[in-house]
Design a protein that fits this description.
Layout (H helix, E strand, L loop, with lengths): L1 H22 L13 H7 L5 E2 L5 E2 L8 H13 L7 H6 L3 H12 L9
Antiparallel strand pairs: 1-2
Helix pairs in contact: 3-5
This protein binds heme C.
Heme C binds next to helix 2, helix 3 and helix 4.
C-alpha cells in the first residue's frame, strides 16, 4: 500500500514542476533586439515584398498583439503553419526567444512599424 502512494506523490510533484517551468518564461522585450536582426530584413520595411522563392508580401508584425505573434511563431515552429521562410526561422527560436520577440513587436505601433 505504501509504494503506490509514493509513486503517485512523485508523479504529482513532477507534473507540478513541469507546469512551473512553462510559467517561468517571462517575456523580456529588452532582450529582443539582438534576436530580431534577421527578421528586420523581411518584416522591417512597410509594404515590402520579397522575391524568393516567389514574390510574396511580408505581413506587418509591429503593433500586433504579443499573443498573436507568439501563436504564429509557435505554429510555424510546430509545423501547424507552413512557410518556406518562416518555418526554418521559427524552428531555431526557443520559447523564451519567441516570448521576448512577441513582447518587443507588440510594443510598437503602426507609426513605428517593425523597427
Ligand atoms: C525571408 C523573409 C522573412 C524573414 C527573415 C522572417 N520572416 Fe516572418 N514572415 C515572412 C513572410 C513572407 C510571412 C507570411 C507567411 C505566411 O503567409 O504564412 C511571415 C510571417 C510572420 C508572422 C505571422 C504574421 C501574421 O500576420 O500572421 C510572424 C509573427 C513573423 N513572420 C515573425 C517573424 C520573426 C519574429 C522573424 C525573425 C526571427 C521573422 N518573421 C523572419 C517573411 C520573413
Amino acid at each position: 500500500m505504501k509504494k503506490p502512494l509514493a509513486v503517485l506523490m512523485f508523479a504529482a510533484a513532477a507534473s507540478a514542476a513541469g507546469a512551473a517551468s512553462a510559467a517561468d518564461i517571462v517575456a523580456n522585450p529588452k532582450a529582443a533586439p539582438n534576436k530580431i536582426e534577421q527578421c528586420i530584413g523581411c518584416h522591417g520595411i512597410p509594404e515590402y515584398k520579397t522575391a524568393f522563392p516567389e514574390v510574396y508580401q511580408v505581413p506587418m508584425i509591429g503593433g500586433q498583439s504579443a499573443k498573436y505573434i507568439e501563436a504564429a511563431l509557435q505554429a510555424y515552429k510546430k509545423g501547424d503553419r507552413k512557410h518556406p521562410q518562416m518555418t526554418p526561422t521559427a524552428r531555431v527560436l526557443s520559447d523564451q526567444d519567441i516570448a521576448d520577440i512577441a513582447a518587443y513587436y507588440a510594443q510598437q505601433s503602426s507609426a513605428t512599424p517593425n523597427k
